[in-house]
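Milestone M4 deliverable, item 7.
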Amino acid sequence: MKGLILGLVCVAGAAAVPMLGNPYYTGVIFQLAMWIALAQSWSMLSATTGYLSLGHAVFYGIGAYVCVLLTGSVPFAVTLIAGALAAGIFAAAIGLPVLRVRGPYFVILTYGLSELVRHVVMRIESALGSFGRMIFIVPPIEVLMWCMLGLATLACLGAWAIRHSTFGAGLSAIREDEVAAETVGVPVTRLKLLAFVASAIIPGAVGGLALLRTSYFEPGQAFDPVISFTIVTMALVGGTETVRGPILGAVALTLLSELLWSNLPQLYMVVLGSTLIGFILFVPRGVSGLVDQIAGRR
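Output delivered:
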């Protein structure tokens, strides 16, 4: 209950940021909410089942592409819903063959799939004679920030609901021992597919909102593998054992990225990679686990 109250207070405080009249702070909250939503969506699959995905950029990019194709012809809300549904449908279509492998093979497969879709979209755009699409009429940044904040809240609630349900218990059994779980009657295939689709829907909507924020679509940016790497880094740095883990990781790395981009942009990826290696080696439970450890000692 205390965590829920604290979360609501934080959301209310973030929603009031536009009242300060500073677009920079509004943009920072937008970015922070975006990464929280993406990291939580990743945790719905990877933290619960142990299937570590490096392909979430494909869902983000699909949402952005659908949004840019529909913007101007349908209402703003419909474009976001369409982007989310397109990402979910794509996940459902590829889920069964992709989820047949696990371990490092699943990691490589998801990364390769994301790159495949990126190059397919690039070829389609090249054949159409389009090397970038501009959007000239977009909602105000305040509206986009509130929508992204809503997605982040929805992702956190969804991750919490999964972890505290029978569905989540089945996913945890798969993570511990998939063969044993299937032996005792856990519907392994169905649960994995549902988790895969659930983890794809939020990134689809996030990609659409991010596109409207930048007002420009380019396949190389929308399907950038750095997006997937950043999502995984935030989740692992924050800790995957609790719902607050991805939130803490997103907050820490978003603030770090703002500091580095404004001062040392060329070192951003170096610091990001070093941070991930350091946490895996020395703080395997992430910031969340470190906080629990310190609180336990006290």
